[in-house]
């Protein structure tokens, strides 16, 4: 009995070791590779784009990474369980437009809280359908993507632009040179990293992706932790929607299309396994930085948006091939 209880405790600690890559015959961690790649991107951008290091562009860069960052952390938590959440882009649209619509009748903090709570509610529904009824995460969240997007249009077919200047405070406030929203995103990653590696619930989420049956035999409620994972993803998407609406000053029911793909890309680039059980908060944050830097650099070069999508797809394929090559070698 003692062996059965201690075995699952060891399983969740394995993903805390950062994935390793073999580059030019040398073994390096993904984190090290990301630092080198990000440094290279920054140097190239600074040398080839005159406006890259301007305060305006750097501030925009910090603001633009918030939405992708929040969605990527929530997506990582779900991916660690072996699942996927395709509904996050629609949740961003719904939470943003609900918040903007409620500003005229409710205090702004309460309206924003309702927006975040709507994301949490959708996450609970997704998690319950997947865990309780054992439905495929892809199917459930794909249905949620369509349903929630439809609900956003039902709420308002046209964009909503609140006139209360207080609505823009969250999206425009800064703490020194750093936007407050960026600090919120960093706090989510910091607290989330501690949650996944230092708490029983977080370790259980990671372990479920490695071997759900072993976790269940250890007496851990697998269903409850899967619901928790999707709830976290919904909360991050709800928060991202509120932040985005506050930053741009307008909420649209059509916003957020393909946001889930950027979140998945950041996780995959960070070495997370779509089969579950393997992923790193730090590496996922590195994936977010890589995506945002590439997007910003291409925008400064005047590259059209559809070519940016092509490049993202090629990056994902290249990363997966590198990961597979290194797994075969190991």
Automatic annotation (TrEMBL):
Q: Which residues cross the membrane?
A: 28-49, 70-98, 110-131, 138-156, 176-196, 226-245, 257-276, 283-300, 306-322
Q: GO CC annotation: what is one?
A: plasma membrane
In alphabetical order, the GO MF annotations are: transmembrane transporter activity
Membrane association type: Multi-pass membrane protein
Localisation per UniProt entry = Cell membrane
Cross-referenced InterPro entries, in alphabetical order? ABC_transp_permease
Q: Which domain of life is it from?
A: Bacteria
**Keywords carried by this UniProt record:** Cell membrane, Membrane, Transmembrane, Transmembrane helix
- UniProt xrefs under Pfam families: BPD_transp_2 (PF02653)
Write down what this protein is called.
Ribose ABC transporter permease
